[in-house]
Amino acid sequence: MSKKLTSRAEDYSKWYNELVVKADLAENSAVRGCMVIKPYGYAIWEKMQAELDKMFKETGHQNAYFPLFVPKSLFEAEEKNAEGFAKECAIVTHYRLQTDPDRPGKLRVDPDAKLEEELIVRPTSEAIIWNTYRGWIQSYRDLPLLINQWANVVRWEMRTRLFLRTAEFLWQEGHTAHATKAEAIAEAELMNNVYATFAENFMAIPVIQGLKTESERFAGADETYCIEALMQDGKALQAGTSHFLGQNFAKAFDVKFANKEGGQDYVWATSWGVSTRLMGALIMTHSDDNGLVLPPTLAPNQVVIVPIYKGEEELHAIDDVVSGILKDLRSKNISVKYDNRDTQRPGAKFAQYELQGVPLRIAIGPKDLANGTVEIARRDTLTKEVVPMDTLIDVVGNLLGDMQKSLFKKALDFRDSHITEVENFEEFKSVLENKGGFISAHWDGTKETEEKIKELTKATIRCIPLNNNEEAGVCVYSGKPSKERVLFAKAY
Amino acid sequence: MSKKLTSRAEDYSKWYNELVVKADLAENSAVRGCMVIKPYGYAIWEKMQAELDKMFKETGHQNAYFPLFVPKSLFEAEEKNAEGFAKECAIVTHYRLQTDPDRPGKLRVDPDAKLEEELIVRPTSEAIIWNTYRGWIQSYRDLPLLINQWANVVRWEMRTRLFLRTAEFLWQEGHTAHATKAEAIAEAELMNNVYATFAENFMAIPVIQGLKTESERFAGADETYCIEALMQDGKALQAGTSHFLGQNFAKAFDVKFANKEGGQDYVWATSWGVSTRLMGALIMTHSDDNGLVLPPTLAPNQVVIVPIYKGEEELHAIDDVVSGILKDLRSKNISVKYDNRDTQRPGAKFAQYELQGVPLRIAIGPKDLANGTVEIARRDTLTKEVVPMDTLIDVVGNLLGDMQKSLFKKALDFRDSHITEVENFEEFKSVLENKGGFISAHWDGTKETEEKIKELTKATIRCIPLNNNEEAGVCVYSGKPSKERVLFAKAY
């Protein structure tokens, strides 16, 4: 099998699809739109999960688990939410199979096992959770309720792509309940901030925090905060969202609490989530034509060591030296793999680890043993250097730290150089077509203009940046007055 | 709300149901047979997951993720497996809802959105995984393939109980592929052994490792290994199973590999799993009429500290001392919670932590401050002792260690005293009715006898213990010759 990828310049979309499969991250399954996350891809996702889970717990949240299914009558209780997801719901209607009388050895749905009420496979869990919260919240003493769930959800998308848009995906969804509007808004902002910190510090992906316009909001939310990232092809990717849900779900599910003054109030809510879509963001932010590039924080193996040898004797000598290196690196919490398989040649191993984005590759041969050196190759810059064995541990630590910073810096420079202010619609279309990236432009604040621009250019308003400058201007499309710029882009 | 539980002697089943809900572990949901795992219950499950995951990785396994849905044509490919699960499958038949023209604001299933092929919500994942493995395995170099998945599964059970039998449950399922029969059997035995070690060392639950009889085997397996535990009411509980699947799935899904000799062989398989059912085993093994009792390894909080005070000044003095204790305990990796809420009285707090099984409760009042002492109450024995503050850290460490051992010992003594050898069917029935527990009896090895005994007594063969003694005898029911004893019990 050729490991050579289509280049990004040639066909960015094809490059992405090939990379995901060839780097052993994920593949399509026999189920339309559902993916298999392969062990290497899943190991990266586990690292994201562990870090996010720690950050959620540090901000006072607890995990719980709610049912996969939502009875239709609960699903439709919050009308906007239901309407928003109705067209992409997988629906369970029966609970039993039986032998097919017409096809020996085959099964068919048992027509007598029809459910009285259909069950929706959760596309999101507000309905089932708020129906549960009604029993958990009586008094202000029960608030805030700060809960997160790690789960699979299903949204029957018609056009799917590995990680970016799949019928089933893995995610976390936080669902919190508060006594006041201010507290709920503060929570939504806090969690959006957690996502931004995670994206930038851990995934090395620069993001812009902002608010969605009304038409881009989560169905059922009063306000949606988001983090928006920019991919190398100039398209934006929404990497996480945090919603202030007002009292919409509390009202739909009748969740009231006794306040300190003895009255009854509806509870205020938030929800927030990130998903395996982050894998897509990770891949498209850092990788190159040779394959995956991973920030060291997310690499299942940060270092791989490959012996270069002829015959058993040379291999044994290398094995001895490497066993000490492994111990030293692991004592510094650096994950390292020694690949001394004799079924693969060094060149094939190099190609594999390059494709899979292992940050540092160390090669050791007989000459190195004689000279007390090793060769270190760095995945992001593709540079190599020969270093004395006795400085190896420090060099590795420094290179990993530098790489983490350098990947972020590179992505940040790219992003910042792809935010373009435009003043009229001709410029808007020209920048969008020729340069891509975010377009910072005045907008008159109407749904009609937003829709029209989308129709004409496929660009959507990605967000109204938080802490946006107030700046009087005129809408890039309608010429009507505007008080601030918003960010447009084509998006994943 | 009264926290008082029904006693075990009065009604064991009611005691269990009340405990699960009152200790905030789980509750029933709006979806028939599906539970909500509450934060406190989920925190215990997370501890189990973390330890199991570590043990799986230490034995060379990697995690991955496969689709929730199984197309019907794949589901039915391995006939025995399909037949075994057909009657309890949730089935997705449609992928869209639409506005109900007859009920404004309500939704109905869109009749035009019927799937061409129905999707089964996985009751177990052999089918979808082996269909995937066909693409992953070409050569002996691709073997063994050692993969685990953490997931939710659905089995449409008619009679459900929290944790013990629910329509949806959480579990892990290992699915491995091997070049030889011997390797696959060794893997199935290894993982059953991992489960036994986990149950005994981590959960303090003594288990018997054994083989299932043919009629109790997993549908599609050639051999099922299991760990069987004994609950306090004398009923057995199957706590984990590990299956040697032979070449059944390889043949059903055409998974062959090029062996070292250049020929093509079908792959050998195992699968193994434990689920949130372990929560039921945990609760029923250790808990008492006052509530949950947790081994320290599984306690979300191993220690809780409750201040006894009047007025702010006393509280501040206690706060100061406690902040040092918290730091010291945490530096020893002991999890501790300081509950200085002023909305609850100490008595209410004591009752809550007793109900929730916190292993050690420390009370500190002004007298303690004056004397340099604290009072420690131990959950399993319900004993209290006053200890000097300066020995506290060591005392806590020792008590936690002792408690872990002591809970196991207590459960082991109970289990061992409830394995009764019987020689005839009158004795069998009498022991089963009056004493309960495992009955060690000779069996003639036939399905007919096994079925008859089950029909007459509700007892099933829990397992044929591994390393069973060979001992000639006659079947307790049929009088036919037998070469070894097997273990019968009524079971969850």
Write up this protein.
2 copies of one chain form a homodimer. Chain A is built from 14 helices and 27 strands. In chain A, helix 2 packs across helix 6 (about 180-200). The first copy, chain A, is about 35% helix and about 25% strand. Chain A is globular, with a radius of gyration of 26 Å. Chain A folds into 3 domains: about 10-285, Bira Bifunctional Protein, Domain 2 (BirA Bifunctional Protein, domain 2); about 300-400, Anticodon-binding domain (Rossmann fold, 3-Layer(aba) Sandwich); about 420-490, C-terminal domain of ProRS (Translation Initiation Factor IF3). The longest helix of chain A has 25 residues, at about 390-415. In chain A, a hairpin with a 5-residue loop joins strand 12 and strand 13. With about 500 residues, chain A is of the alpha+beta class. Chain A starts with 11 loop residues before the first helix and ends with a strand. Chains A and B meet through strand 2, helix 2, strand 3, strand 4 and helix 3 of A and strand 2, helix 2, strand 3, strand 4 and helix 3 of B. Strand 5 (about 90-95) of chain A pairs antiparallel with strand 5 (about 90-95) of chain B.
